[in-house]
Backbone:
């Protein structure tokens, strides 16, 4: 891109007009810095976006996923992974400092970046204080949920250990489908009732995939704890 006029180079464009002035391919080209023989970094970035479909998919990809792209080796891949981790940690910092319900989209974005691209199902807990600020987050279950009683007990035990007042749970659907299953709804209802007995409020259950996330609270399908007593 050296033969371009400077105002048209992504780095110069960002410097003069800010990051919002750049499209996805231009921002990506700044991260990967160089292209391969016969194409510059912007052309390579456009090719990556076309193949993977989104920036999120690119940032979550394994090194093996880039095997068909000349010019993307371990150096560029580690740059992409580092960028992804910085974004995730920035979101985590914000969740620690503010009421998570000031931005449900932030919660969903954090969950997508944390568990959305996993190829196996995991169950995650976000433990919150009385002001709905994040105390701690962790994956506490991996694989299919087939023993609900043990699953409920483990969540309750973890809540007591973290001394949390409120809880958001989430799990991913590796298939990409975001529609809650009957089992998802049943487990959520049982979990809400059980946690209420130890004075922990289940505030939301999110379902996540690499394509996005849904919130049972936003969909108005989260069990109403008050009506269960």
Residues:
């Amino acid at each position: 891109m050296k033969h371009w006029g400077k105002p048209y180079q992504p780095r110069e464009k960002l410097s003069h007009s800010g990051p919002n002035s750049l499209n996805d391919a231009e921002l990506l080209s700044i991260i990967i810095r160089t292209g391969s023989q016969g194409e510059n970094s912007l052309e390579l970035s456009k090719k990556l976006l076309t193949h993977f479909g989104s920036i999120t998919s690119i940032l979550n990809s394994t090194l093996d996923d880039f095997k068909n792209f000349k010019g993307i080796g371990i150096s560029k891949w580690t740059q992409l992974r580092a960028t992804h981790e910085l974004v995730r940690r920035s979101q985590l910092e914000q969740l620690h400092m503010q009421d998570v319900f000031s931005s449900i989209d932030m919660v969903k974005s954090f969950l997508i970046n944390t568990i959305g691209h996993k190829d196996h199902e995991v169950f995650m807990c976000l433990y919150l204080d009385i002001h709905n600020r994040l105390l701690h987050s962790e994956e506490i279950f991996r694989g299919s949920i087939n023993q609900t009683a043990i699953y409920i007990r483990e969540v309750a035990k973890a809540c007591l250990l973290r001394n949390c007042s409120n809880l958001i749970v989430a799990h991913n659907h590796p298939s990409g489908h975001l529609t809650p299953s009957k089992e998802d709804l049943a487990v959520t209802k049982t979990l809400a009732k059980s946690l209420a007995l130890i004075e922990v409020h289940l505030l939301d259950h999110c379902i996540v995939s690499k394509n996005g996330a849904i919130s049972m609270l936003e969909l108005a399908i989260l069990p109403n704890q008050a009506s269960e007593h």
